[in-house]
Structure formats: C-alpha cells, structure tokens
Design a protein that fits this description.
Shape: rod-shaped
Strand content: under 5%
Number of strands: 0
Order of helices and strands: HHH
Structural class: mainly alpha
Length: 121
C-alpha cells in the first residue's frame, strides 16, 4: 500500500477535474499481468520448441550456415519477447501503485468530508 507520498502524475493532475477509479486500474493491472503471462509463455514454451538442426536443412543448408542463422534469430525473438514481458510487468506494477495512491486519496477525502460534516474542520 502506498504511503500517500507517491503521486504517479506529479502535479500535472492537480485540479484537472478528472476522476480515477482505483478498481478500474486494478482490473487493467490484472489484464496486463495476464498479457505478460501469455507473452512469457510464448517465449518459454512456444519459441523454445523451435530449433533447427543440420539434418533439417541438408548439405547446402549446412554450407550456407542456415541452422546457425535460424537458431540465432529464434534466440533473439525469445530475448525480445522476454524483455516485452518484463515491460508489461513494470506497467502493471505502475498501475498498481497508481491505484494505491488514488485509494489513499479517496480515503483521505472521505475522512476530510466526514470531519467537516461533524464540524471538526
């Protein structure tokens, strides 16, 4: 839970009149984590099975270095896919922090209104 000191938008959002629904941010976070899982699975399971061997390409393929180039390309695809999954995780974490922040703000606003109603402010 955020301590309330974190404002994901700095002062840019102050007084703009927009509304944020923390539960919508949480739902988006869940969806992004699900996307991250699919991307990670694609890399670790689907791409991991794609391997070319000398026997697959014949003598000319071996002489043309097709196996190495192909396998290196798949390795690069896995690396980029893993990095994409990490970026999706970072995005989900940032949305989760934003939801924490706005929940904290909602709680503070509710307390402030309740105190005003009681005549404490």
């Amino acid at each position: 839970m955020s301590s309330g000191n974190f404002n994901p938008f700095g002062n840019a959002a102050a007084g703009t009149g927009f509304e944020v629904y923390p539960e919508a941010l949480r739902k988006a976070t869940d969806d992004i984590y699900a996307a991250r899982d699919k991307v990670a699975t694609f890399s670790s399971q689907d791409l991991a099975q794609i391997v070319l061997r000398d026997d697959d390409v014949g003598m000319l393929g071996v002489m043309a270095n097709v196996v190495h180039v192909f396998n290196e390309t798949v390795a690069q695809m896995r690396d980029k896919t893993d990095k994409g999954a990490m970026q999706l995780e970072r995005l989900a974490e940032a949305l989760d922090k934003a939801a924490d922040y706005y929940e904290t703000q909602d709680e503070a606003d509710f307390k402030r209104l309740r105190d005003q109603e009681k005549g404490l402010n």
